[in-house]
Amino acid sequence: MLIPKKGKPWLLTDFRFALQAEEEAQGFTVELYKKGLYALLKKLLPTLNVRRLGFESHYFLHSSVGKLEEMAENIKVELVPLLGLVERMRVLKTEEEIKLIKKSVLLNEQIFQSVHKTLTPGMTEIDIALALEQTMRKMGAEEPSFETIVAFGTNAAKPHAVPTNRVLKNGEIVLIDMGLVLGGYCSDMTRTFVVGKPKKKFFQRLRVVRKAQLAGTKAIRAGAICRDVDQAARKVITDAGYGDFFGHSLGHGVGLAVHEAPGLGSRNRKKLRAGMIVTIEPGIYLPEWGGIRLENMAVVREDGCEVLNEDTTGLDL
Amino acid sequence: MLIPKKGKPWLLTDFRFALQAEEEAQGFTVELYKKGLYALLKKLLPTLNVRRLGFESHYFLHSSVGKLEEMAENIKVELVPLLGLVERMRVLKTEEEIKLIKKSVLLNEQIFQSVHKTLTPGMTEIDIALALEQTMRKMGAEEPSFETIVAFGTNAAKPHAVPTNRVLKNGEIVLIDMGLVLGGYCSDMTRTFVVGKPKKKFFQRLRVVRKAQLAGTKAIRAGAICRDVDQAARKVITDAGYGDFFGHSLGHGVGLAVHEAPGLGSRNRKKLRAGMIVTIEPGIYLPEWGGIRLENMAVVREDGCEVLNEDTTGLDL
């Protein structure tokens, strides 16, 4: 995508995407390259009178920038690496965007609930992940916003578990982390529960995670420092003796991408602002035992936050 | 992944992938970073006595190389950008690898055939794509090697069509481009056919594409120049008057990745070598009418090539 200061933006692509580009990129001048992107830019930039060209440093590969530099030098264009330009424009959501994200969250929950009630021992992690993704598409989602995680028992100790053919046993932990794209906007939710009769330890630990989530949620408001929000939740888990088993950050922004700014982690000293949307997803992961994670999404408001989730599976303690 | 000249290779990752890394990366020393990759490298490189550090220029983002440079300067390590180092090691397949790829191809065909015979008017592109991907996982594939393409009628005029809710009508073109990963190795196949009674034009054009595929296949042997193979197939399509409607290259390498070297395109002057595996996938795309693509995979041999596919749907003219 090439956006000159004046005039229509350009979409540069190749033959394979010609029809799709015409259909989807309304308002753009679509130009196809036959001899590669850099050859086309070399022709196009002088006609557009471009003297300085910014590019997204965190999307361009190092080797591609090499080619970009060669081309730019050739036609005496100054190259300017940019970091987070578009991300900064996206970090605050408008009320319209918040509505779209809420819709995405609610559809995601509806799908979770419809599959959740069919779960029985004997199913595999892959069976359930496929059922969830198939239901997403049937119920109108554009696609999953990331590869659906379904993890049983000790597999749930991997925060980014990949579904396997492991068969669900009665009384085992089930961790489901799922999201979808609707109207271009992402959702992301995690629930952890037991099919059958859970052991006492499960409730004990679930309660710790839920308390941590509530503490994190309570700490969110415009002006709060990201790492302080992480710390508010982390403290509950540390105080319960599980500090070493919650190794990831508390949450991340969600919008057009399922992971975007801001990060709710222990190294982020930036302040939250009203209109940001973040996940709140503390967890405890014990290799020999399993894992528990609970994840909701919330909008940052001036005086607090508004949780977008309505599903209460595992939250109602 | 960090590979010192001597001693065990290292896998550097974070908490979220700790268990998976231990399970999957046998023979590696797994080290987790808490304060980011660059902070860990800064500590680790001096203890390993690294003075020159190569990195994959076509996998590292421009912004990440910035951080890598800062770190390297700090500990006086020389940075060396590398291009295609691993790819060059992968381009020639061993006989063992060829067997694994053949297995992947045959499983892919089996899945295609089992879904192909269930196709009826009224199904949507998404229905069929989901059925294919679900069957892949049920029949033991690790995952699809790319997002399955199912395109009806005019949608088939997009070489990289995305499945939609379009409903299949009797007599309409169906283009299916699908692949899977089995034992780590990819397959990739395209078939185009009609459910119901095809129009005459369809067979006419299908025959052109198949003839182009045969011409390309015949041109493949060790020592043949990649662009000449592309040209051999392209000439058939151009001679039939469809030269402007075959805008992509004839094929690409396949192995651990579904797209790898060598590229069979009009700008590649390199020679094929025995043991390479390539796709041969000519196509004709007419926006108002639809598209046809046929894709097989073949191993380059000293005196010709060995087509890995056995399925004959649309090839038996």
TrEMBL record, chains A, B:
Its EC number is 3.4.11.9. It comes from Candidatus Electrothrix aarhusensis. This is Xaa-Pro aminopeptidase. One of its GO terms (molecular function) is metal ion binding. InterPro entries: Creatin/AminoP/Spt16_N, Creatinase/aminopeptidase-like, Creatinase_N, Pept_M24, Pept_M24_MAP, Peptidase_M24B, Peptidase_M24B_aminopep-P_CS. Residues 100-302 form the Peptidase M24 domain. It is an enzyme of class 3 (hydrolase). The keyword Acetylation does not apply. CDD domains: APP-like (cd01092). PROSITE patterns: PROLINE_PEPTIDASE.
